[in-house]
């Protein structure tokens, strides 16, 4: 056990160090990333070669099996360079959770490229209907339209949540749920990602129109329960909490980068009509101290709740309190980081209004990230309801 823990720690330290080494490159290519509205393919492939797309799932599924806290911290560090790059890699990592439900032959095909780039949308925005294929092969016809498909422009495999018409409803007449695994040529990837922030995430909409897929390309969610991986702590973590937490971490990384950028700018900038640098103003001292405190407090809470959920997952499924605390801490990290990005942009005045400014990019990215339903303020409404209504629907937690 001690040797395993040491190996896990070494892998975590390696990936965190690599993430820190990426910061200057990601900063340098920020304008290019925004202009392309997706990650440049060479950048995505190099990130994949370094392992950033496979940090989360266990080694038996082609991943590194790093803890959620480390995966979040990697996202946080990468986001200090560029949030879109951090976003795409975390989406790639979390999209691989469904690897545990794939048939062995299909998993082997997906992992044929050890540097595979994956992407996916968990929302069940498509349908899969049984239909024979060539020579009577078992398969499904898939139709659907999936929005916010981050990283799909770079991916070799793209998955989308589907409702499966299997003829054997899973529960109370409801269709079974699963994921369809597509190659890029199977789908239409629409050029509709024209946004103010997270431009480089390439979070376009993709569509499948009557595409036939062999049965092994449809993974049933319930298959995870019968998988040998079901006992892994990763699969005992609250799913929505797990999917959301890197968003909060990315937001914290952007907020920290904003504070660092203000300190750097303020040491040399002399505001018009002043004889002193911006960094000599007491009002800026106060603003930076407040921002630093808010980020540290939000970060401490987030990682404490990740740690509590992970500890619980070593032995059993999360209870309501764990699920609630993880979601609220992540949402709080997002909203706090947005406020900090806004205050730091205001603190340096006109310097931050140009597109090339890291401050302006982080603000736009934080505003866009905060609109994601996983970290938007309605999460607080949902969690708050559980304090008053013991019968509240908590499936979204």
Question: Which descriptors apply to this entry?
Answer:
alpha+beta; seven-stranded mixed sheet
Summarize the structure.
Helices cover 47% and strands 14% of the residues.
Could you describe the 3D structure shown?
The protein has 397 residues and is of the alpha+beta class. The chain contains eleven helices and seven strands. A seven-stranded mixed beta sheet has the order 5-6-2-1-3-4-7. It is globular, with a radius of gyration of 22 Å. The chain starts with a helix and ends in a 12-residue tail after the last helix. The model has no long low-confidence stretch (mean pLDDT 94).
Biggest β-sheet, characterized? 7 strands, mixed
Shape: globular
Summed up, the helix count is: 11
Distance between the termini: 33 Å
Q: Let me know the number of strands.
A: 7
> Average pLDDT across residues?
94
Taking all Cα atoms into account, the compactness measure Rg is 22 Å
Element order: H for helix, E for strand: HHHHHHEEEEEEEHHHHH
Secondary-structure topology with pairs:
Elements: H1 2-28, H2 30-36, H3 41-49, H4 68-81, H5 83-95, H6 104-110, E1 118-130, E2 139-149, E3 157-164, E4 176-182, E5 188-189, E6 204-214, E7 218-220, H7 239-266, H8 282-313, H9 320-347, H10 358-370, H11 378-385
Parallel strand pairs: 1-3
Antiparallel strand pairs: 1-2, 2-6, 3-4, 4-7, 5-6
């Amino acid at each position: 056990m001690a040797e395993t823990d040491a190996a896990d720690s070494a892998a975590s330290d390696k990936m965190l160090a690599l993430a820190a080494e990426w910061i200057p490159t990601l900063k340098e290519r920020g304008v290019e990333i925004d202009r392309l509205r997706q990650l440049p393919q060479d950048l995505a492939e190099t990130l994949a070669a370094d392992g950033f797309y496979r940090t989360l799932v266990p080694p038996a599924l082609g991943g590194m099996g790093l803890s959620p806290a480390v995966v979040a911290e990697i996202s946080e560090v990468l986001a200090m360079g560029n949030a879109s790059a951090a976003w795409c890699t975390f989406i790639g990592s979390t999209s691989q959770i469904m690897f545990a439900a794939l048939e062995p032959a299909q998993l082997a095909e997906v992992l044929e490229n050890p540097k595979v780039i994956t992407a996916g949308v968990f929302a069940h925005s498509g349908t899969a209907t049984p239909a024979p294929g060539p020579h009577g092969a078992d398969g499904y016809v898939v139709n659907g339209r999936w929005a916010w498909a981050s990283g799909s422009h770079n991916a070799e495999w793209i998955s989308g949540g589907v409702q499966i018409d299997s003829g054997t409803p899973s529960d109370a007449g409801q269709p079974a749920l699963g994921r369809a695994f597509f190659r890029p040529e199977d789908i239409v990837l629409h050029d509709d990602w024209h946004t103010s922030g997270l431009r480089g995430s390439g979070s376009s909409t993709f569509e499948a129109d009557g595409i036939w897929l062999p049965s092994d390309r449809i993974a049933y969610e319930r298959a995870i329960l019968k998988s040998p991986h079901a006992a892994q702590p990763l699969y005992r973590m609250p799913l929505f909490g797990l999917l959301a937490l890197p968003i909060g971490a990315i937001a914290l990384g952007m907020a920290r980068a904003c504070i660092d950028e203000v300190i750097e700018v303020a040491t040399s900038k002399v505001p018009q009509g002043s004889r002193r640098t911006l960094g000599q103003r007491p009002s800026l001292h106060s603003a930076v101290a407040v921002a630093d405190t808010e980020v540290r407090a939000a970060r401490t809470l987030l990682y404490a709740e990740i740690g509590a959920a992970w500890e619980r997952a070593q032995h059993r499924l999360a209870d309501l309190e764990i699920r609630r605390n993880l979601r609220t801490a992540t949402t709080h990290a997002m909203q706090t980081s947005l406020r900090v990005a806004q205050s730091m942009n205001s603190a340096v005045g006109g310097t931050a209004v140009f597109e090339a400014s890291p401050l302006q990019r982080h603000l736009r990215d934080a505003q866009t990230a905060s609109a994601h339903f996983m970290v938007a303020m309605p999460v607080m409404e949902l969690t708050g309801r559980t304090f008053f209504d013991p019968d509240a629907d908590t499936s979204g937690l």
